[in-house]
Amino acid sequence: MAMSDSSVALAASLEEAPAAGSVAVRPPRRRLPTEEAPWVRRLLITLAVGFLALFLLLPLVTVFMEAFRKGAGAFIHAFADPAAIDAIILTLVVAAIAVPANLVFGVAAAWAVAKFDFRGKAFLVTLIDLPFSVSPVVAGLVYVLLYASHGIFGGLLQANGIQIIFALPGIIMATVFVTFPFIARELIPLMEELGNTDEEAALTLGASGLRMFWTVTLPNVKWALLYGVLLCNARAMGEFGAVSVVSGHIRGYTNTMPLHIEILYNEYQFVAAFAVASLLAALALVTLGIKSWLEHRYAGDLAAGHRH
After folding, report:
1. Whose CA is closest to 141, among 213, 239, 55, 242?
2. How far, in Å, CA of 106 to CA of 185, rounded?
């Protein structure tokens, strides 16, 4: 006897349905050709985390542990030293001067490189990258050869009562040298990607050059500019090599925080040295926290800027 269509459908569904109490087994997901094997991913993650823990987290934790090794009293006492206070003030003063100077230079250099074509453009880009390839100690030595009393311009400066080396001006100049690529290097790729369309539209509508910069160019690059300023500030406060050469290590006068830490450590004042070092580390962590907060808080604006 022929079975009806409904009976055939019912039988087929019963054959396809799993037996009572059994669990349906999904077929394993096929790995895409571009995907790594699970064990490879785990190995890479483990290596990355282990590397960061060994070379970044562990030293950072050690700094704070050594700073408080003899208690909070010894930690606070390290900052009661007038030399430590002078070093902190000098570091903040140098950063307050060097960062705005690099801000002006970075914006001007990025504007010139990204918006214009001119002879020597590649050479200018090479000069911007120069501090990344030259040792800070070599940079400090160059300033000594130029501006010290026995240097090329030293006699002229000394005759006019101007002291560059072993004084605040030399420290600022050395700090500016080692930090000036940060802002320019943050702005140049973004300005090149944005092109000149918005600026040309603003000029067509009658905007002046200054108004075009403040209302069009600057809003388009404000986040990259802010990141560059944060990185520049962090490097300015932590610079050691170039500043060490030009400062003369005069306690209470030309010692920045990194130099003061070195002196304390060489004098076996380990708790005081790590206490000041922990302040530098805390400033770096604050900088990183501000950067991360801005990325989280203004993620939509950042994405819109990149799409633009």
Report:
1. 242
2. 8
SS3 for 90-150 is: HHHHHHHHHHHHHHHHHHHHHHHHHHCCCCCHHHHHHHHHHHHHCCHHHHHHHHHHHHCCC
Express each pLDDT in 98-131 by its tens digit. 999 999 999 999 988 988 888 888 898 999 999 9
What does the alpha-carbon distance between residue 128 and residue 114 come to, in Å, rounded to a whole number?
13
Position 126, amino acid: T
Query: Which amino acid is present at 236?
Result: A
pLDDT in tens, 38-70: 788 889 999 999 998 999 889 999 999 999 999
Longest dimension (CA), the chain: 123
| Cα 291 from chain centre | 9
